[in-house]
Amino acid sequence: KRMFTTTAARGRGVARRMLAAIEDSARSAGCRRVILETGDRQPEAIALYESAGYIRIKDFGFYALLLGNVLFLTGSWHYDVFLAGVAVTPGAIMATVSAPIAGRLTDRFGARATALPGGLLFAAGGLLLALRTGAEPDYLGVFLPSAVLTGLGVGLSIPAFSSAAAAQLPPGRI
User: Fold this and answer.
1) Which pTM value belongs to this model?
2) Which of 74, 73, 63, 75 is nearest to 151 (CA)?
3) Is 111 helix (H, G, I), strand (E, B) or coil?
Protein backbone atom coordinates (compact mmCIF):
# COMPACT_ATOMS: atom_id res chain seq x y z
CA LYS A 1 0.00 0.00 0.00
CA ARG A 2 1.02 3.64 -0.12
CA MET A 3 1.09 6.43 2.44
CA PHE A 4 1.95 10.09 2.21
CA THR A 5 1.06 13.29 3.99
CA THR A 6 0.15 16.59 2.43
CA THR A 7 2.52 19.49 2.88
CA ALA A 8 0.09 21.17 5.28
CA ALA A 9 0.01 18.09 7.55
CA ARG A 10 3.78 17.61 7.77
CA GLY A 11 5.54 18.20 11.07
CA ARG A 12 2.42 17.51 13.15
CA GLY A 13 2.89 13.80 13.84
CA VAL A 14 0.32 12.73 11.23
CA ALA A 15 2.77 10.44 9.39
CA ARG A 16 3.83 8.80 12.65
CA ARG A 17 0.17 8.09 13.50
CA MET A 18 -0.43 6.74 9.98
CA LEU A 19 2.57 4.45 10.31
CA ALA A 20 1.29 3.19 13.67
CA ALA A 21 -2.13 2.51 12.09
CA ILE A 22 -0.49 0.57 9.25
CA GLU A 23 1.51 -1.49 11.74
CA ASP A 24 -1.65 -2.18 13.81
CA SER A 25 -3.52 -3.23 10.66
CA ALA A 26 -0.70 -5.54 9.61
CA ARG A 27 -0.54 -7.05 13.11
CA SER A 28 -4.32 -7.62 13.08
CA ALA A 29 -4.01 -9.34 9.71
CA GLY A 30 -1.47 -11.76 11.17
CA CYS A 31 1.62 -10.25 9.55
CA ARG A 32 4.83 -10.85 11.42
CA ARG A 33 6.82 -8.07 9.76
CA VAL A 34 6.31 -4.86 7.82
CA ILE A 35 8.63 -3.94 4.99
CA LEU A 36 8.63 -0.34 3.87
CA GLU A 37 10.02 0.99 0.63
CA THR A 38 10.73 4.62 -0.05
CA GLY A 39 12.78 6.56 -2.51
CA ASP A 40 16.29 7.58 -1.52
CA ARG A 41 15.31 11.19 -2.22
CA GLN A 42 12.75 11.25 0.59
CA PRO A 43 14.91 12.02 3.63
CA GLU A 44 11.94 12.93 5.83
CA ALA A 45 10.29 9.55 5.22
CA ILE A 46 13.58 7.73 5.81
CA ALA A 47 14.10 9.63 9.08
CA LEU A 48 10.55 8.77 10.22
CA TYR A 49 10.98 5.07 9.48
CA GLU A 50 14.40 4.90 11.15
CA SER A 51 13.10 6.74 14.23
CA ALA A 52 10.30 4.14 14.40
CA GLY A 53 12.89 1.33 14.53
CA TYR A 54 13.08 0.31 10.87
CA ILE A 55 16.49 -0.58 9.48
CA ARG A 56 17.53 0.75 6.10
CA ILE A 57 18.81 -1.70 3.51
CA LYS A 58 20.39 -1.07 0.13
CA ASP A 59 18.17 -0.05 -2.78
CA PHE A 60 17.65 -2.96 -5.14
CA GLY A 61 15.50 -1.61 -7.98
CA PHE A 62 13.92 -4.42 -9.97
CA TYR A 63 15.16 -7.01 -7.49
CA ALA A 64 13.29 -5.38 -4.61
CA LEU A 65 10.05 -6.74 -6.05
CA LEU A 66 11.42 -10.29 -6.03
CA LEU A 67 12.70 -9.98 -2.46
CA GLY A 68 9.51 -8.24 -1.36
CA ASN A 69 7.39 -10.97 -2.94
CA VAL A 70 9.28 -13.75 -1.16
CA LEU A 71 9.11 -11.91 2.15
CA PHE A 72 5.40 -11.24 1.64
CA LEU A 73 4.63 -14.84 0.73
CA THR A 74 6.53 -16.24 3.70
CA GLY A 75 5.50 -13.56 6.19
CA SER A 76 1.89 -12.74 5.29
CA TRP A 77 0.58 -15.76 3.42
CA HIS A 78 2.74 -18.13 5.52
CA TYR A 79 4.25 -19.99 2.56
CA ASP A 80 7.36 -21.96 3.40
CA VAL A 81 10.54 -20.81 1.64
CA PHE A 82 10.38 -23.58 -0.98
CA LEU A 83 6.77 -22.82 -1.91
CA ALA A 84 7.53 -19.07 -2.06
CA GLY A 85 10.38 -19.86 -4.45
CA VAL A 86 8.07 -21.91 -6.63
CA ALA A 87 5.43 -19.16 -6.48
CA VAL A 88 7.78 -16.46 -7.83
CA THR A 89 9.25 -18.70 -10.54
CA PRO A 90 6.66 -17.87 -13.26
CA GLY A 91 7.85 -14.26 -13.24
CA ALA A 92 11.45 -15.35 -13.79
CA ILE A 93 10.36 -17.74 -16.56
CA MET A 94 8.44 -14.95 -18.31
CA ALA A 95 11.48 -12.65 -18.11
CA THR A 96 13.75 -15.39 -19.46
CA VAL A 97 11.43 -16.27 -22.34
CA SER A 98 10.62 -12.69 -23.34
CA ALA A 99 14.14 -11.19 -23.11
CA PRO A 100 15.56 -12.78 -26.30
CA ILE A 101 12.45 -11.77 -28.23
CA ALA A 102 12.71 -8.25 -26.83
CA GLY A 103 16.37 -8.14 -27.85
CA ARG A 104 15.49 -8.93 -31.46
CA LEU A 105 12.64 -6.39 -31.42
CA THR A 106 14.95 -3.76 -29.90
CA ASP A 107 17.53 -4.38 -32.64
CA ARG A 108 14.88 -4.04 -35.31
CA PHE A 109 12.70 -1.20 -33.99
CA GLY A 110 14.79 0.58 -31.33
CA ALA A 111 14.82 0.61 -27.55
CA ARG A 112 11.55 2.51 -27.13
CA ALA A 113 9.65 -0.25 -28.92
CA THR A 114 10.21 -2.62 -26.00
CA ALA A 115 11.18 -0.37 -23.08
CA LEU A 116 7.86 1.47 -23.02
CA PRO A 117 5.60 -1.60 -23.18
CA GLY A 118 7.95 -3.39 -20.76
CA GLY A 119 7.76 -0.54 -18.27
CA LEU A 120 3.98 -0.41 -18.58
CA LEU A 121 3.66 -4.18 -18.04
CA PHE A 122 5.97 -4.02 -15.03
CA ALA A 123 3.95 -1.14 -13.58
CA ALA A 124 0.66 -2.94 -14.25
CA GLY A 125 1.91 -6.05 -12.45
CA GLY A 126 3.12 -4.01 -9.50
CA LEU A 127 -0.13 -2.07 -9.37
CA LEU A 128 -2.18 -5.27 -9.47
CA LEU A 129 -0.11 -6.65 -6.63
CA ALA A 130 -0.38 -3.46 -4.58
CA LEU A 131 -4.11 -2.94 -5.06
CA ARG A 132 -5.51 -6.47 -5.01
CA THR A 133 -3.30 -8.43 -2.61
CA GLY A 134 -4.84 -9.03 0.78
CA ALA A 135 -4.23 -11.05 3.90
CA GLU A 136 -6.01 -14.07 2.39
CA PRO A 137 -3.90 -15.93 -0.18
CA ASP A 138 -5.12 -15.60 -3.79
CA TYR A 139 -2.29 -17.01 -5.85
CA LEU A 140 -4.19 -17.75 -9.05
CA GLY A 141 -6.36 -14.63 -9.00
CA VAL A 142 -3.78 -12.00 -8.02
CA PHE A 143 -0.24 -13.16 -7.42
CA LEU A 144 0.30 -15.30 -10.54
CA PRO A 145 -1.08 -12.68 -12.97
CA SER A 146 1.07 -10.05 -11.28
CA ALA A 147 4.17 -12.26 -11.53
CA VAL A 148 3.51 -12.88 -15.23
CA LEU A 149 3.05 -9.16 -15.95
CA THR A 150 6.12 -8.05 -14.00
CA GLY A 151 8.21 -10.85 -15.50
CA LEU A 152 7.19 -9.84 -19.03
CA GLY A 153 7.92 -6.24 -18.12
CA VAL A 154 11.44 -7.07 -16.93
CA GLY A 155 12.07 -9.28 -19.96
CA LEU A 156 11.03 -6.52 -22.35
CA SER A 157 12.75 -3.67 -20.50
CA ILE A 158 16.20 -4.97 -19.62
CA PRO A 159 17.37 -5.67 -23.22
CA ALA A 160 16.12 -2.23 -24.27
CA PHE A 161 17.91 -0.50 -21.38
CA SER A 162 21.11 -2.42 -22.07
CA SER A 163 20.94 -1.61 -25.76
CA ALA A 164 20.27 2.08 -25.12
CA ALA A 165 23.18 2.25 -22.66
CA ALA A 166 25.56 0.46 -25.03
CA ALA A 167 24.54 2.72 -27.92
CA GLN A 168 25.91 5.70 -25.98
CA LEU A 169 29.39 4.19 -25.65
CA PRO A 170 32.13 5.42 -27.96
CA PRO A 171 33.28 2.95 -30.63
CA GLY A 172 35.61 0.29 -29.28
CA ARG A 173 34.21 0.43 -25.70
CA ILE A 174 31.79 -2.48 -26.05
Assistant:
1) 0.63
2) 63
3) coil
